[in-house]
Write a structure and sequence with these properties.
alpha/beta; seven-stranded mixed β-sheet; 9 helices; 22% strand
Length: 240
């Protein structure tokens, strides 16, 4: 969820982690650790990762992005971009992408890069970590964990495990999705299903305790959940 989506027409709503907070969390940690020069390597086959890249560049006031390169879906060789980053002597590389960034991290270490890695929550993906072959360990990334110690997230988590035989892999994909369906269910009960105006009003007036926390829409049609900085330790997220 982000301001670009929220500013679309009145019939567009979003309930998800805030794209801008991904950049805020990463920049905040970089500044705390005196990172001055970064390279940003981002997926450019959708509009999401480029938007996070733009937010990062905008917020990184105490340093400079010396290399900013996009890559398309299907890329398997990141060495040309990585060599540019190494040549610029960057302190850190920011990977904004999906499972393929695990391969990019592995190639960076093979090329001798010893600086910090920054990433998104996709770094918790088991397939990304398998491809990375240990190179993702210690990376700082933006993430959000559901409040599983309290209701209704606690009951939802148990039901999820009962049905799938495993816990959710990525909280920020699972819990907001469930809450979004509940929002629509409640709005359909309140409004006439063939009146779009009533449905829109009912969504904006939504207020309940969801698995992600208090669900209360802003007037722009958004519920934005803030992500924070985490560190990958033994394949799992640990808040920093």
């Amino acid at each position: 969820c982000n301001k670009v989506l929220a500013e679309l027409n009145d019939n567009v709503f979003c309930l998800a982690t805030d794209s801008e907070s991904i950049a805020t969390a990463l920049v905040g940690n970089a500044e705390q650790n005196n990172v001055k020069k970064v390279a940003i390597i981002h997926w450019n086959s959708d509009s999401f990762m480029p938007l996070v890249k733009d937010f990062f560049v905008e917020k990184f006031k105490t340093g400079e992005a010396k290399v900013v390169e996009g890559y398309s879906a299907g890329t398997t060789d990141f060495r040309t971009i990585l060599l540019k980053a190494i040549d610029k002597k960057v302190d850190a590389i920011v990977f904004l992408g999906y499972d393929e960034t695990g391969l990019a991290m592995k190639q960076a270490r093979e090329l001798g890069f010893s600086g910090k890695f920054y990433a998104t929550g996709t770094i918790t993906s088991p397939s990304l970590q398998k491809i990375a072959e240990g190179s993702a360990e210690g990376a700082i990334f933006a993430f959000w964990n559901a409040p599983k110690d309290r209701e209704p997230a606690k009951s939802f988590t148990q039901e999820f495990v009962n049905r799938t035989k495993r816990p959710p892999i990525l909280d920020l994909a699972t819990y907001p999705t469930y809450d979004s369906v509940k929002v629509l269910e409640n709005a359909l009960k309140k409004a006439s299903t063939n009146d779009l105006g009533q449905l829109r009003t009912a969504i904006l007036e939504t207020e309940f305790d969801g698995t992600t926390g208090k669900i209360l829409f802003e007037q722009d049609g958004s519920v934005r959940i803030k992500e924070s900085a985490y560190k990958l330790e033994n394949g799992s997220p640990k808040i920093v």
